[in-house]
Design a protein that fits this description.
Helix content: 55-70%
Number of helices: 19
Strand content: 5-15%
Largest sheet: 7 strands, mixed
Low-confidence stretches: none
Number of strands: 11
Structural class: alpha+beta
């Protein structure tokens, strides 16, 4: 297919439509065909890539680089979990080699011993698989886990996946048992029974390399979840330009003809400061009512939020130029700072545009976060408007179905929430209205982001647990490998704390090196995710040492717990076996 021909087929009717609009608004003299075509920058996007298109800042989701990195991380974690199982069986080999070769001396064949070892690991792997299936079933019944996913997580809907993982568990069990089985039966029994074995230095290096990979992934995930947490904290605690923590809102569409009576009833309640009505709940969406206006000299496009005259004072929105709405206002705007900056011709008390149907601008308010942080609210023109006769005659005034109730600081909001419901029902509502805190609405607005943060947090915990298993296995091997060295150091006067420092020092250096490599990648992934927000938190420097401290503390605690027995063992026991 010729892409250029496709573009022309789409652009031609769009240009003609724009031309007609210019004619309808008496702007024919400003029409420029070449400029119109150039402004239509058509971009063809494959259907599979639309999720990451980057075209529309309001509806695009995700970042392709972050998505691929997270998928790769999941795959690596699964591989590392399987390798940890192999490491565990290898770490046990020096402790089992004598007992297995004793059975050889007593008549057991090499083949039967090897099959027994492989059978053990396969059984352990299958047992883990069945426990995982039971755990997944129980977790699928937990509402918290269900909320982390958009699709179904019922096992019955993913039978092929369950069977595939079951088969993979058999393969992993066989792989984890084959090498140790051949290793421990590969020596002469007499030689084994006279000494002790700690596996080879090369095997130790391989296990160290795998541990470093686990440290790397864990450090990336811990820093990344820190960045996600900072953004979620910013969403809830940054300045919104209005009193979001003191406002409840309710759906009162069933009581449109009783708004004044409802306001009067609520104002008599202790703790209620003011009541206002609006068409939308502020901050509840990324897309509201958009108005486009034009005259012979100017063309404007802005977000229009219909409200009543109480609204700005109820929400605590500051007017910095002109005045606030009053009781007798109608067909007028209060625009935000972004609109004032962009529309430099606007004068207070005059119409926005030179049109008979246009409304009057009475004031300018500070920029407020009327949409989510995905939108640059400080750069988006917006206007609060109060309908007057021009719109009331068209029935537009009956669109203010959201009631906003500002309560005094320290008021019991839960009790007030129930009181609002009771009053609405008493006023004749057919259904109990939904009354929410604005913070609750923010959770709904950022549902996808918070779900993703929870997913990454759970995944980070899994990464950390798998890494600790790897540390446990390597420490178990390390203490066996260095058993004689530890005993000699104890004989020459080393204390338990000195031995523990010796064993921990190596892990500290490994973790430091891995963290230095992981930090830039974590910063990149986090910054890419933050690109989805026009208003976002900075990535603070202190997040990185804090993440290192968290991973290091848990890692060293694991090493100390595992090494404690070897550090306190009587040195005679370890030296006399050599």
């Amino acid at each position: 297919m010729d892409i250029d021909k496709v573009k022309q087929l789409i652009i031609a009717p769009l240009v003609e439509k724009i031309h007609q609009l210019y004619k309808e608004h008496g702007m024919e003299d400003q029409w420029d065909m070449a400029e119109a075509k150039e402004s239509l920058n058509l971009r063809l996007q494959p259907f599979t890539e639309t999720w990451f298109s980057g075209i529309d800042p309001w509806y695009d989701k995700g970042n392709k680089a972050v998505d691929w990195i997270l998928q790769l991380s999941c795959l690596l974690v699964l591989m590392i979990a399987a390798i940890n199982f192999l490491n565990f069986t290898l770490a046990e080999s020096p402790m089992r080699i004598k007992s297995i070769n004793t059975r050889r001396v007593l008549g057991s064949s090499v083949a039967s011993l090897r099959l027994n070892i492989i059978g053990e690991t396969v059984c352990i792997s299958l047992l883990a698989f069945f426990l995982a299936v039971v755990a997944c079933y129980l977790l699928s019944q937990w509402s918290f886990i269900s909320q982390l996913f958009v699709g179904s997580i019922a096992l019955g809907d993913h039978l092929w996946l369950v069977l595939g993982i079951g088969l993979a568990s058999v393969v992993v069990g066989m792989m984890a048992g084959v090498y140790p089985a051949f290793y421990v039966t590969g020596f002469q029994p007499a030689l084994v029974l006279k000494g002790s074995f700690g596996l080879t230095p090369k095997g130790r290096q391989l296990r160290t390399l795998l541990l470093c990979l686990q440290f790397f992934i864990t450090c990336v995930m811990v820093v990344y979840i820190g960045i996600l947490y900072l953004q979620s904290h910013y969403i809830f605690t940054s300045d919104y330009g209005y009193n979001k923590d003191e406002v409840l809102y309710a759906d009162t569409w069933e009581l449109l003809d009783k708004h004044e009576a409802l306001r009067s009833e609520l104002m008599q309640q202790t703790g209620v400061v003011d009541v206002a009505y609006s068409q939308f709940a502020l901050g509840s969406s990324d897309s509201y009512m958009n108005w486009g206006r034009a005259d012979k000299n100017h063309q404007v496009q802005f977000v229009a939020l219909p409200v009543d005259w109480h609204y700005l004072r109820t929400m605590g929105i500051e007017v910095i130029e002109g005045r606030d709405f009053n009781e007798h206002d109608g067909d007028c705007y209060v625009i935000n700072e972004a609109a004032r900056k962009k529309w430099d011709w606007v004068e207070m008390g005059k119409k926005l545009l030179d049109e008979d149907t246009e409304m009057t601008v009475v004031g300018v308010c500070r920029n407020v976060r009327f949409a989510s942080t995905r939108i640059d609210n400080d750069a988006s023109p917006m206007a609060f408007l109060v309908y007057g006769e021009k719109y009331i005659s068209k029935g537009w005034a009956n669109s203010l179905g959201v009631m906003n109730v500002r309560v005094a600081a320290g008021t019991d909001k839960v009790a007030m929430r129930q009181k609002i419901k009771d009053i609405c029902m008493k006023m004749g509502a057919k259904h109990e209205p939904e009354v929410k805190f604005l913070n609750q609405q923010l959770e709904d607005t950022y549902q996808e982001e918070f779900r993703f943060i929870s997913q990454v947090m759970v995944f980070s915990v899994i990464c950390l647990v798998i890494t600790l298993i790897g540390v446990f296995c390597l420490t178990m091997f390390e203490t066996e490998y260095r058993r004689k060295e530890i005993g000699i150091r104890k004989v020459f006067g080393s204390t338990t704390s000195e031995v523990l420092r010796l064993l921990c020092r190596r892990y500290v250096w490994l973790l430091m090196c891995c963290f230095i490599v992981a930090a830039p990648l974590a910063w990149y992934i986090g910054s890419q995710w933050l690109q989805g927000f026009a208003e976002r938190t900075p990535i603070y420097w202190w997040l990185f040492p804090l993440a290192f401290l968290a991973v290091g503390t848990v890692t060293l605690a694991t090493v100390i717990v595992q090494s404690w027995r070897a550090a306190n063992e009587n040195p005679v026991n370890s030296i006399k076996t050599e």
